[in-house]
Amino acid sequence: MLLAGGVAAAGCGLGPGASVGSVALLITRDYGQQRLGQREVSDVKESDTVMRVLDRSGDITTRYGGGFVQSIDGLAAGSSGGRPEDWFFYVNGVESPVGAADYTLHAGDRVWWDYRDWTAAMHVPAVVGSWPEPFRDGYEGERHPVRVRCFEAGGACRMARREVRDAAGPGRTGGAVIEVLVGTWDRVRTDPAAAQIEHGPGYSGVFAEMEHSGRTWSLRGVSADGAAAQTFGPDTGLVAATRRYGSVPVWVVTGTRQAGVQAAAAALRPKRLRYHYAVAVEGGRTTPLPVP
Fold this sequence. Notes:
By secondary structure, the chain is an alpha+beta fold.
């Protein structure tokens, strides 16, 4: 069974090159709702790829000349009820632009494989469930500067700055900036990356809808098949991540009202975000998105 054992034995089936350290490997299905396995893989070599590490850790089959995963422990790409299902992977919370056989790993990377229905969104460009990544180690081998951009002053802004600062660790310069946008939705939506959320999960990868009525906004959670599944109250917050045209990830910490923004900022913790693509936060309760 995949990942049933402990830490990989040093020197067993490892690729050439010097050791770069260890990486975390997580296997789930249905947008992280069911965890199938998790382990720390030690002694990863310079030439090791996501595919090599996965192959050392479980029983897999591949397709397209070995570049893409077909099955893990017998769970294979296919369809269920006429809806397509497949394996997708993220490194440090960012969807890879290349196949698993071509993605070289670095020390500290968090690799997340998820088997999911992709009816509503074939591409989900970024997720929040690998916190504190991508703030701590960046992605694709580069540690990016991080900036919290607050659209309003107040406690939510201060809280978000503190949590992101602690997650990122010591500052770094150079490279494109990973932004965290904090504010009510009517302000945050002026950012082009955040505005994608209004076009649905097929466009942004975020399974939430912001509905405008008069002067107010309401937040609705969307299910994996793209149907609006749950309408949240007026003080609900949203924590989500997306990308625009393949640029650096953008995180959105927002709400329809200020209380929702505060709730979203308070959710920037491992226990609230881990294993989720995005979350809605209402009254201290965290609901994973897409809605189960």
